[in-house]
């Protein structure tokens, strides 16, 4: 009888192969023996056929059937053993490849080999660790992996060389450096998350937040000289960029008249674009929708941080002397690379509160058309102009619109001319060293009761307000009402009163993944002192006071008296002083004719100090 021996799962691949060869040889031997036996039986039957009876023939047939069955069973048994050995080998290779993803087992084997000549006590400890490792494998699912984006926790970041927008020739922010805080990883109960599908740092836990994903940024650069040339030629900068590159520049508006975009098409301007892709696999052509779709499918497996929180490494120092030394080292390091500490801060200055604190507020009120200039060396960051009439019949303020000031320009000019005698325009803008990137001004007008706007590109509101008004009646100026738009929200809406004919909404939206400080802002929009003008109270005809909440201070804002006889009476339309905790406005007490009406209005953005 032939015996078959199967190798255990702990034996090597060579041993399994040898066993398969042995089994195959044994099978061949069995077949030869069976064939020889059959041949001998046939010879004996021919020689002794005269002496055998029917019973012998039946026995012979039964023996043949038994021999054939035995042969089939042995062949099947050998085939099953071969398949089982092959399956065991494939499973072992697959398990080893899975563990090599984290390189934990290989590192442990290297340490064991390196310490092979140590004391017996050390060898026994290493053996125990190996046993624990094998036991830990039973806890882990077959698809254990590190949660995408977890590799960036605790790494260093160089502010001098970092660029949150990314670089054109790289899919990663060049500011990232080597690991600073090292985390311990282990294939153990402590190192596996509760879902048994992802690793987590030992003595730590994972809270999944949408901080890592993919982003495509399109940067359009237009020289100042080209902007000035476009204005001289009567060409809208926004419309020209839309025609050249397909969509508007950062800091632009979603509602700009592009009727002049065809003027001077032959004129060439200094403009260029740059596309930066962060996260996912490299993309060939972002202008093709199918390429964008394919790229979006790779972001899940290859995400990049687009909403990072940086903490100075000095925060981990216990000694004040070490922190002071760190500050000195930063100054030395920055100057070594040709940058001053001020330049270093400016490179990463994404705090919207600092930007607005250093900006200049400009206001103006006059008959249309209206124009205002930024201070020398400053450009428009955002702003609007609003045309109104509180006396004449304007057919429910038809043709009386709100416009945005074009970001990046050194002035703001309304395109609306004068239609009636008592037309008046109000202009407000904020000027800074440069336009606000990753911002969008949005406006909306409506003659229906409900009016709403929504920030594009998943942006959030930085500031904004709604205003409802009317015309054609002697007391139209009495019915002017305000609505604040809350910073951090995605949309703003208002419901118009029955006394109003038209509503306007203006909001400035920003990308809060780039700009910080939005959550530390409050917006105040007030109206009051509605009623008749009292001529006997010069410059004290009613008062409206706006106070910043949370002990805050004013960053920007304006105060205005909407008056029946504007622009022919001297009424207030002034900026709210920065850094103060409140802003107030008084009625002028001026009037033309028998009776005039008024409303006081305050709008201001405040920095919270609590």
Provide structural commentary.
It contains ten helices and 26 strands. The chain has helices at residues 13-47, 54-100, 104-114, 120-137, 224-232, 237-245, 289-298, 320-336, 341-347, 352-357, and strands at 145-146, 155-157, 176-179, 198-199, 212-213, 215-222, 271-278, 304-305, 360-366, 371-373, 379-388, 402-404, 411-413, 424-432, 439-446, 450-454, 460-469, 481-484, 491-495, 502-510, 521-532, 543-547, 553-563, 573-575, 582-586, 597-607. The strands form ten sheets. A four-stranded antiparallel beta sheet has the order 9-14-11-12. Helix 1 runs antiparallel to helix 2. Pfam families: MACPF (PF01823). Residues 12-34, 54-66, 119-130 have a biased composition (Acidic residues). Residues 1-94, 113-135 are annotated as: Disordered. It comes from Plasmodium falciparum (isolate Palo Alto / Uganda).
Describe the structure using short key phrases:
single chain, alpha+beta, 26 strands, four-stranded antiparallel sheet, about 600 residues, 10 helices
The helical percent reads 25-40%
Largest sheet: 4 strands, antiparallel
Q: State the secondary-structure class.
A: alpha+beta
> Compute the gyration radius: what is it?
41 Å
User: Termini, distance in Å?
Assistant: 92 Å
The total count of helices amounts to 10
Please state how the strands of the largest beta sheet are arranged side by side.
9-14-11-12
Oligomer: single chain
Overall strand count: 26
Mean pLDDT: 75
Residue runs with pLDDT of under 50 for 5 or more positions: 1-52, 98-112, 132-141, 247-266, 340-348
Q: How large a portion of the residues is in β-strands, by DSSP E?
A: 25-35%
Shape: elongated
């Amino acid at each position: 009888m032939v015996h078959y021996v199967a190798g255990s799962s702990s034996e090597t691949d060579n041993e399994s192969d040898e066993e398969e060869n042995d089994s195959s040889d044994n099978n061949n031997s069995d077949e030869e023996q069976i064939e020889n036996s059959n041949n001998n039986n046939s010879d004996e039957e021919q020689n002794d056929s005269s002496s055998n009876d029917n019973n012998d023939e039946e026995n012979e047939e039964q023996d043949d059937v038994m021999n054939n069955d035995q042969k089939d069973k042995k062949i099947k048994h050998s085939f099953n053993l071969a398949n089982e050995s092959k399956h065991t080998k494939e499973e072992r290779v697959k398990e080893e490849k899975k563990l090599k993803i984290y390189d934990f087992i290989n590192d442990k084997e290297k340490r064991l080999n390196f310490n092979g000549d140590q004391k017996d006590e050390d060898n026994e400890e290493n053996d125990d660790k190996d046993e624990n490792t094998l036991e830990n494998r039973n806890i882990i699912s077959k698809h254990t992996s590190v949660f995408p984006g977890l590799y960036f926790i605790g790494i260093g970041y160089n502010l001098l060389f970092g660029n949150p927008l990314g670089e054109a020739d790289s899919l990663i922010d060049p500011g990232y450096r080597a690991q600073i805080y090292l985390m311990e990883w282990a294939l153990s109960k402590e190192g596996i998350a509760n879902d048994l599908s992802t690793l987590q740092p030992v003595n730590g836990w994972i809270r999944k937040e949408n901080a890592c994903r993919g982003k495509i940024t399109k940067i359009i650069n237009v020289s100042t000289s080209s902007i000035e040339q476009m204005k001289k030629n009567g060409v809208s900068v926004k419309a020209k960029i839309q025609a050249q590159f397909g969509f508007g520049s950062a800091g632009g508006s979603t509602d700009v008249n592009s009727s002049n975009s065809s003027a001077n098409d032959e004129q060439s301007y200094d403009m260029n674009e740059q596309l930066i892709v962060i996260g996912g696999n490299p993309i060939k052509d972002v202008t093709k929708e199918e390429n964008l779709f394919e790229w979006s499918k790779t972001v899940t497996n290859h995400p990049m941080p687009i909403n990072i929180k940086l903490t100075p490494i000095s925060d981990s120092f216990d000694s004040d002397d070490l922190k002071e030394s760190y500050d000195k080292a930063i100054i030395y390091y920055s100057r070594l690379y040709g940058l001053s500490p001020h330049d270093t801060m400016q490179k990463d200055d994404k705090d919207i509160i600092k930007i607005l604190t250093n900006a200049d507020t400009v206001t103006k009120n006059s008959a249309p058309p209206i124009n205002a200039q930024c201070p020398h060396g400053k450009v428009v960051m955002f702003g609007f102009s609003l045309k109104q009439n509180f006396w004449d019949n304007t057919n429910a303020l038809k043709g009386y619109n709100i416009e945005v000031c074009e970001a990046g320009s050194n002035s703001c000019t309304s395109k609306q001319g004068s239609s009636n005698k008592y037309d008046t325009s109000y202009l407000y803008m904020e000027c800074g060293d440069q336009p606000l990137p990753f911002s969008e001004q949005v406006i909306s007008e409506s003659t229906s009761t409900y009016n709403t706007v929504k920030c594009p590109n998943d942006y959030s509101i930085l500031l904004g307000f709604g205003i409802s008004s009317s015309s054609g009646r002697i007391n139209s100026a009495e019915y002017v009402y305000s609505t604040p738009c809350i910073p951090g929200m995605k949309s703003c809406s208002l419901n118009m009163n029955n006394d109003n004919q038209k509503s306007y909404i203006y909001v400035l939206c920003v990308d809060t993944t780039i700009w910080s400080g939005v959550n530390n802002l409050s917006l105040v929009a007030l109206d009051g002192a509605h009623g008749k003008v009292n001529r006997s109270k010069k410059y004290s005809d009613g008062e409206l006071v706006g106070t910043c909440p949370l002990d805050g201070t004013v960053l920007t804002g304006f105060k205005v008296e909407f008056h029946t006889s504007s622009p022919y009476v001297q009424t207030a339309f002034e900026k709210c002083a920065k850094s103060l905790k409140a802003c107030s406005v008084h009625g002028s007490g001026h009037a033309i004719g028998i009776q005039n009406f008024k409303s006081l209005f305050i709008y201001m953005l405040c920095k919270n100090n609590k």
